[in-house]
Design a protein that fits this description.
11 strands, alpha+beta, DNA-binding, 4-stranded antiparallel β-sheet, homodimer, 245 residues, 21% strand, globular
DNA sequence: CGGTGTGTTGAAAGGTGTCAATGCTAGTGG
DNA sequence: CCACTAGCATTGACACCTTTCAACACACCG
């Protein structure tokens, strides 16, 4: 019951000192473990939520589709991230979510999340924190797309992913597996696949990264941080309001 | 105590049927009414939150500043919107907030918000809903900046504002006061002031809007909705999960 | 009345998009 | 084991949207 490797316990432990009761509630929240194939739609925009998941392994992404086929990737979802958490507060999904790789998830019974609010206020606050954090990451991506050059925002995203993957032990030094196609990367950064390709090559040529199609190596993290104005503050996972601890 | 014109009661009433006790708690949340001059910094990024407000009148905006002076406006905050709500979950501000016009606000004691989580779970869920809604609007702006043309995203924003202002009785038919400078509009939409100017003129020339520098009139809402792919679903204020009602 | 902020306009430069062709790799089936 | 295919990455030429730079008009205000 106190399995320290459990992703949900680990995630929430960063935010607050969990009591035994809270640990028990969190463990009970997690139903069963499931494997979902790559490229599967998990949440469909405007439809009623059916499931909530916590990612154990693999990548997924949230996105919005425009009428003419253009799409915008809103977020990459990694180990420890929730999928469909909004089920706790919204009736219908506000955007779609799709698996990128094969995904190992813990399924979560949505009703249990709602019960959190009644019975364990500190955990409710932590859920609220998760929702808010998503919004912070969105804000950062938005300033990227709106005000950074292609070069800056591409580097910025790669650094963000390094940081987030590091927090869940999916990096090796400054490299990580990167299952994102350039087309998807383009839809994330508001560029075209062709231009993403050129930008990646520019990053390679400048000695900032290596990339063989499967794995990203950040060759010169500190220089890249300078060039892209990357400030990891927004990713901090330990700054929950003390009033809830 | 049951003042139906109170903005906070009105806001939350849309989400759930408030009990008398909940009404009382919400009223007690609101401390005093205050007037803040235009162009005042209310929340400073990375600093500890000092205040939470609920807007009664006037405009404010959230923004992020890059090192070299570039800035991205993240959101416009209107009547009924919270400022610094994140104080409930974050220790430090994730972005700055500044008044655009003179602002009439209700001040809210942050500690009281935290108490909400312990004592009135349904209100806690409503706060969480507010946080989530912000994230939904951010997502929509992001797809705008990332995947829509200057013309589309400008029209889209003007339609969004029409819809949001309508919900708080600040429109006259399809027109509303618009205190945003073109420079600020540029920083919102990821464009330059010059190009915003040209885009607004194009919208005027096409008979979509009128604009005299102070007031926007949407001349042809349905056509503009078509042209910009505006789907107001994401702004709905009545779709909180039933589990919390 | 001059200063400052805002809006407007034109010309030119440049970043990014579009179009199109080629190469590469993995998977499939004969 | 070898075509064959499909998807993705790569590259070049060119077009175009948006930016940059610059100048001017206008309103507000001390």
């Amino acid at each position: 019951m106190n399995d320290p490797s459990n992703p949900l316990l680990k995630k929430f432990s960063l935010l607050l000192e969990l009591t035994d009761e809270e640990r028990a509630v969190l463990m009970a929240l997690q139903d069963r473990c499931e494997i979902i194939p790559a490229d599967t739609e998990l949440v469909h925009i405007n439809e009623e939520y059916s499931n909530t998941f916590l990612i154990q392994n693999g990548w997924a992404y949230g996105y919005v589709l425009l009428a003419d086929g253009r799409q915008q990737i809103l977020s990459f979802l990694l180990r420890g991230d929730f999928i469909g958490l909004y089920t706790a507060v919204f009736k219908r999904a506000e955007y779609s979510v799709r698996t990128l790789t094969e995904l190992t998830v813990y399924t979560i019974v949505p009703e249990r999340i709602i019960e959190l609010f009644s019975n364990t206020p500190r955990l409710a606050a932590a859920v609220c924190w998760s929702v808010a954090r998503e919004s912070v990451i969105l804000a950062e991506h938005m300033t990227g797309i709106g005000r950074r050059t292609a070069y800056e925002r591409t580097g910025h995203l790669l650094l963000e992913l390094l940081q987030r993957l590091e927090a869940v032990d999916l990096t090796e030094s400054t490299s990580y597996e990167f299952p994102v196609t350039q087309h998807l990367l383009a839809d994330t950064l508001g560029l075209t696949p062709v231009h993403i390709n050129r930008t990646l090559r520019a990053l390679k040529k400048d000695g900032m990264i290596s990339y063989d199609g499967k794995r990203i190596i950040i060759e010169n993290p500190s220089r890249l941080r300078e060039l892209t104005g990357f400030d990891p503050t927004y990713l901090a996972q330990t700054d929950m309001s003390e009033g809830n601890e």
